[in-house]
């Protein structure tokens, strides 16, 4: 929201306003304000309750002195000014937000000062400064009306206390039902008092009491100078309350402040005269931080440093903020201080620091807002409620402090303000010192860019975040998604040169340039340590110089051309002023000529407008104001229009804005996800985890919460979505059968007895919203409703059921009607269907946003082993076992019942599954097992993984292995065809299915030529290199690149198979046989001391040590498994290129390979060695499943 000022205003103040009681219209109850107070009180008493009728608005149980009556604008001077039309409704409500207040001589009647903001529909702001005091009521009609109200009130109370149902026993009194209109049900009703006792308590007697009513005088100004305006108003009030009259009529002082006191331009100070003393104000220059004249120290005194920072963080992340206090000026001070500390960013959403009681319904807006709500004297707990409860200390200062402040105290306030603001601004300058290089400038013209603004990215967030220190990421990843940051970048794109920049952007860019020139921070140097602010001394001196040396002294108040007798007033009463002398300013330049320094007004006027207003260029203002997700008319309610039709229209814009935001978010998330998946990142590895995805999902969760919060009857709990889900669960669990429990955590707790030939596929999981809710409720780590709602959204997205679940939830129309008002988004059928349709698009991609986030929870898994049907799998007699490994952990050995081949177990989240180790104990008569594949499913997310095998497990068959390591891939959930695989993302699989038996025999010679083999090795190495060049959070499993299809193990197998001599008939020869013979040769050569050099000896010792360790392992792995283990260990210790060189020169190679073999071609071997050497710079960490049992 652009915080501009009236472009044509060069006066310090535009209007002087008087608000109060209109004796002609009498006492008029403020029904809207009273109704809102009544509803607020009854919510605490009986929870969800239907809306009260308008008749209940007056609340006759409330004492008449405490009721709400309408105030009116009695007069304002001048009638109107061209550049700032007078908004009577807004001014009236904000001058006296809770209407008129009555007091007697027994009550305190100290004057109270407060300021307020009126935000127009174009985003420009006008500031108001009001002093509220009490005047004696002289109208006999008003006093008689108040007396009559008290008689009615006492009679009402007497009837209530004398009803026949009133319990007499004290024990029964605590069960007494309160009166439906009683706003304080916690007060126990005592036995019936007498009428005289009622009249003596909090009463008004016209014969002995003096009645006072509140009145307000106010200045409306284009800029915020609260300290100066407070002094002016206090001196005006003192003039009518002091025994001695002022030197001049009141009209002279009001005329002076309206017409003869100019608005100081940037970098200047101004001194003018009040009724009894001088008033000084000063305005920062164009190189300084924007104008701020509120005492920021009061905010820290009220909340404390830690709580201020929490509130500041909530504002930066655009969380709904509601301030709650007895004092209007506290609300304004806190709100203005928080937004001032945001420099160079600006709050872009609803901003109403003082919300009139009649506009309480604006709190239901489903958009970020910063509002302040006044509390009653009885209920003000003087604390702010943020995402966490924060204790707030009482303000140590009294109202008397507001009356008198010497110049020295005001100077200290300005100095402390600038010190704190400079520290915050310095931090932002350091964090965004190189933001310009990440701004994405549009390639098309401005009109095209503007029309497609919602679909375009204006900032390279991923690159910017990748350069930031780790401690910054949690905050920055969310902050970059806010509207205030997007608007800041929009302003940067729209400005062509320095003259076009907004004031805040120009100041910030100059600081960025300065910090670069001083080499305090550069784009290549980042640190999370705070760097001292160097601007504080300079900023303090600038303020001190302006206060010490006043640039201009305005004209003194003087007598006006008034008739004799005009200007007189009665002591103690602020009169209506003479409108004829205050309606227009001076016609001639008579008084201006007396002060030559006044010429700086004309000289600096154009510069002042260019620096602060920027409202003349319609085209530029259009870009700034319209390039938002929601229009300004949606974000900023107009206070002067309260008709039901306008409220309904505004609410409809809320609904349309939410739907548009949903469409934009889903589109962006899909483009981000699918765009990455379309790029092949190393053999199909497309694991997408990290800051950007989590940020987008968190933003989607925020949107869902705002949608579910719109139009609630009564808000229950912190999460509206989870509250709705709980209501749905409660209503359905009585009729729906609850799913079977998973049992207590343990290793193996549920074994389904099912024969292997009964079916090869896993039984599909039942789709159940309630079941998914219970999964979340069973997670002990999630303790808040907001956390549970977000976990449920993440789980639903991962299962591709978010749209389906929400559609099921909203299909209970009776529940929705019970929880939501008619205008709620969830009760707009067309928009709701479009919303669910947009969410349905998430089913096109795979998310692991639940699995990757909740890494410590217990998850049940189901394992199903599928043996070969053709080769007598049912005759298998040994005892099988499995060990499942994932990116986060592994299970350990789990025994599988031999006759069922399936098991369900529970363990800590394994992450995305990578390998399954399986084997058996070789017991029984028939211990040979041909396994087709293994299926493993996460019973919470429903993700099923298929681990192909196609190999024998048993002695004397295949390669003699009793255990194997299988690499799997994700399959589509609930697929009827087991062979149908999910291609999003295409994960690697075990190479066993492709090569079936990795042996060297006449019937199974490799068909690849040397160039194809070289290409395969290069692709395998390239995949590993890409893996390590990606951010750590975006890396997939390295096991897939080593042992998966077309991985490094497969590539080196092709190298050693090429040109292998044909073995004898019916005998399989494996690569491991060649390696063992080479080991024997090397060991014998070393014993004979036939060694070329010391390097050769070192390489031989390493090779033989690894061969011995693998052969001596207790694991029953076959020859192919041993070769895989050797390659993985060699890659880990960067020895593969040494071993290739050894084997190429070994005499055993001559015996076992043809002359055309790749291993015997010196140039090809040297090329292979160079490629393998590229792995030396990477620290390769192997999964435990690959090197289990090896002690090196």
UniProtKB/TrEMBL annotation:
Family that this chain belongs to: Belongs to the RAB6IP1 family.
Which InterPro entries does the record match to this protein?
cDENN_dom, dDENN_dom, DEN5A/B, DENN_C, PLAT/LH2_dom, PLAT/LH2_dom_sf, PLAT_RAB6IP1, RUN1_DENND5A
Q: List the protein's name.
A: DENN domain containing 5A
- Phylogenetic placement of the source organism: Eukaryota, Metazoa, Chordata, Craniata, Vertebrata
Listed GO cellular component terms?
cytosol; membrane; trans-Golgi network
Which residues does the UniProt record annotate as the domain UDENN? 53-502
The biological process GO terms on file are:
retrograde transport, endosome to Golgi
Chief localization: membrane
Cell location = Membrane
All copies of the RUN domain together span: 691-855, 1039-1187
Species per Swiss-Prot/TrEMBL record = Salmo trutta
Q: Which residues form a coiled coil?
A: none
Tell me which residues make up the PLAT domain: 859-967
Give TM segment ranges. none
GO terms (molecular function) for this protein are: guanyl-nucleotide exchange factor activity; small GTPase binding
Q: Which keywords does this chain's UniProt record carry?
A: Guanine-nucleotide releasing factor, Membrane, Phosphoprotein, Repeat
Q: Read off the SUPFAM superfamilies from this record.
A: Lipase/lipooxygenase domain (PLAT/LH2 domain), RUN domain-like
């Amino acid at each position: 929201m652009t915080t501009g000022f009236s472009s044509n205003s060069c006066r310090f103040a535009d209007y002087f306003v008087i608000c109060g009681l209109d004796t002609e219209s009498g006492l008029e109850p403020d029904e809207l304000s009273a109704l809102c107070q009544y509803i607020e009180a009854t919510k605490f008493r009986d929870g969800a309750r239907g809306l009260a009728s308008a008749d209940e608005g007056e609340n006759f149980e409330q004492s008449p002195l405490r009721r709400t009556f309408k105030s009116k604008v009695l007069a304002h001077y001048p009638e109107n000014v061209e550049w700032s039309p007078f908004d009577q409704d807004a001014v009236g409500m904000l001058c006296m937000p809770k209407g008129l207040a009555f007091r007697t001589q027994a009550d305190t009647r100290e004057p109270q000062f407060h300021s307020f903001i009126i935000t127009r529909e174009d985003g420009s702001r006008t500031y108001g400064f009001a002093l509220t005091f009490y005047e004696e009521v002289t109208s006999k009609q008003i006093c008689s009306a108040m007396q009559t109200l008290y008689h009615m009130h006492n009679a009402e109370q007497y009837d209530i206390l004398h009803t026949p149902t009133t319990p007499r026993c004290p024990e029964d009194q605590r069960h007494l039902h309160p009166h439906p209109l009683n706003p304080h049900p916690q007060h126990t009703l005592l036995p019936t008092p007498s009428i005289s006792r009622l009249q003596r308590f909090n009463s008004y007697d016209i014969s002995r009491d003096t009645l006072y009513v509140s009145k307000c005088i106010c200045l409306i100004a284009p800029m915020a100078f609260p300290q100066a305006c407070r002094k002016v108003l206090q001196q005006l009030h003192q003039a009518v309350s002091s025994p001695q009259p002022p030197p001049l009529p009141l009209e002279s002082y009001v005329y002076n402040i309206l017409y003869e006191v100019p608005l100081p331009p940037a970098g200047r100070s101004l001194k003018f005269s009040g009724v009894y003393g001088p008033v000084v104000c000063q305005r920062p220059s164009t190189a300084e931080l924007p104008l701020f004249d509120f005492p920021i120290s009061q905010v820290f005194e009220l909340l404390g440093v830690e709580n201020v920072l929490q509130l500041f963080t909530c504002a930066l992340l655009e969380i709904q903020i509601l301030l709650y206090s007895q004092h209007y000026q506290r609300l304004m001070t806190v709100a203005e201080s928080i937004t001032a500390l945001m420099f160079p960013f600006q709050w872009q959403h609803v901003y109403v620091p003082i919300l009139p009681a009649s506009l309480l319904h604006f709190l239901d807006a489903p958009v970020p807002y910063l509002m302040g709500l006044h509390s009653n004297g009885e209920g003000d707990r003087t604390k702010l409620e943020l995402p966490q409860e924060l204790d707030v200390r009482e303000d140590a200062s009294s109202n008397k402090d507001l009356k008198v402040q010497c110049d020295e105290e005001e100077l200290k306030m300005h100095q402390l303000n600038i010190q704190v603001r400079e520290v915050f601004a310095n931090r932002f300058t350091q964090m965004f010192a190189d933001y310009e290089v990440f701004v994405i400038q549009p390639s098309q013209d401005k009109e095209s860019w503007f029309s497609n603004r919602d679909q375009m990215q204006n900032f390279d967030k991923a690159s910017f975040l990748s350069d930031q220190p780790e401690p910054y990421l949690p905050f920055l990843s969310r902050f970059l998604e806010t509207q205030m940051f997007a608007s800041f970048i929009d302003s940067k794109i729209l400005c062509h040169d320095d003259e076009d920049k907004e004031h805040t952007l120009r100041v910030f860019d100059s600081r960025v340039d300065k910090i670069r020139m001083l080499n305090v921070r550069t784009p290549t140097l980042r640190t999370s340590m705070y760097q001292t602010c160097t601007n504080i001394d300079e900023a303090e001196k600038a303020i001190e110089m302006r206060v010490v040396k006043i640039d201009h002294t305005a004209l003194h108040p003087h007598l006006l051309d008034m008739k004799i007798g005009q200007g007189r007033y009665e002591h103690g009463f602020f009169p209506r002023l003479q409108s004829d002398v205050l309606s227009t300013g001076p016609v001639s330049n008579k008084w201006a000529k007396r002060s030559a320094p006044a010429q700086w007004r004309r000289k600096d006027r154009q510069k002042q407008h260019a620096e602060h207003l920027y409202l003349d260029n319609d085209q530029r203002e259009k870009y700034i104001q319209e390039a938002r997700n929601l229009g300004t008319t949606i974000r900023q309610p107009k206070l002067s229009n309260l008709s039901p039709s306008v409220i309904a229209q505004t609410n409809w814009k809320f609904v349309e804005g939410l739907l548009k935001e949903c469409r934009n978010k889903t589109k962006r998330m899909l483009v981000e996800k699918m765009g990455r998946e379309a790029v092949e990142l190393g053999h199909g590895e497309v694991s997408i985890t990290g800051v950007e995805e989590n940020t987008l999902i968190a933003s989607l969760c925020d949107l869902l919460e705002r949608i579910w919060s719109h139009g609630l009857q009564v808000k229950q709990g912190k999460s509206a979505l989870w509250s709705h889900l709980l209501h749905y669960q409660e209503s359905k669990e009585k009729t729906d059968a609850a799913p079977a429990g998973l049992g207590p955590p343990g290793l193996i707790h549920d074994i389904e007895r099912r024969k292997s030939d009964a079916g090869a596929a896993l039984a599909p999981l039942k789709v159940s919203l309630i079941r998914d809710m219970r999964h979340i409720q069973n997670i002990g780590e999630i303790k808040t409703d907001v956390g549970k709602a977000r976990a449920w959204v993440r789980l639903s997205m991962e299962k591709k059921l978010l749209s389906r679940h929400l559609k099921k939830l909203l299909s209970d129309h009776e529940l929705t009607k019970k929880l939501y008002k008619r205008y709620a988004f969830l009760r707009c059928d067309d928009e709701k269907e479009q919303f669910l349709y947009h969410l349905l698009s998430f089913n096109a991609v795979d998310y692991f946003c639940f699995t990757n986030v909740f890494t410590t929870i217990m998850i049940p898994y189901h394992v199903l082993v599928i043996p070969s049907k053709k080769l007598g799998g049912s005759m298998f007699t040994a005892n099988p076992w499995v060990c499942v490994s994932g990116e986060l952990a592994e299970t350990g050995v789990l025994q599988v019942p031999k006759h069922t081949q399936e098991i369900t177990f529970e363990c800590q989240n394994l992450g995305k599954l990578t390998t399954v180790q399986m084997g058996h104990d070789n017991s029984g008569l028939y211990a040979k097992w041909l396994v087709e594949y293994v299926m493993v499913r996460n019973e919470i997310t429903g993700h099923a993984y298929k681990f192909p095998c196609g190999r024998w497990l048993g002695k004397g068959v295949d390669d003699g292995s009793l255990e194997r390591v299988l690499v799997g891939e994700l399959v589509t959930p609930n697929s009827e065809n087991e062979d149908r695989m999910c291609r999003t993302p295409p994960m690697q699989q075990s190479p066993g299915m492709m090569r079936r038996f990795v042996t060297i025999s006449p019937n199974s010679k490799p068909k690849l030529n040397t160039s194809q083999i070289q290409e395969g090795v290069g692709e395998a190495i390239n995949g590993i290199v890409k893996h390590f060049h990606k951010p750590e959070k975006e890396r997939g499993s390295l096991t897939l690149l080593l042992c998966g299809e077309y991985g490094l193990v497969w590539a080196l197998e092709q190298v050693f198979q090429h040109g292998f001599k044909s073995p004898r008939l019916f005998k399989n020869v494996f690569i491991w046989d060649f390696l063992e013979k080479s080991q024997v040769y090397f060991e014998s050569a070393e014993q004979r001391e036939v060694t070329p050099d010391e390097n050769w000896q070192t390489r031989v010792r390493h090779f033989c040590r690894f061969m011995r360790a693998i052969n001596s392992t207790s694991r029953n792995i076959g020859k192919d498994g041993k070769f895989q283990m050797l390659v993985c260990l060699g890659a880990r210790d960067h020895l593969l290129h040494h071993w290739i060189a050894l084997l190429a020169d070994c005499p055993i190679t001559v015996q076992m390979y043809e002359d055309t073999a790749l291993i015997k071609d010196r140039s090809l071997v040297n090329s292979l060695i160079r490629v393998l050497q590229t792995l030396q710079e990477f620290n390769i960490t192997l999964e435990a499943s690959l090197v289990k049992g090896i002690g090196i």
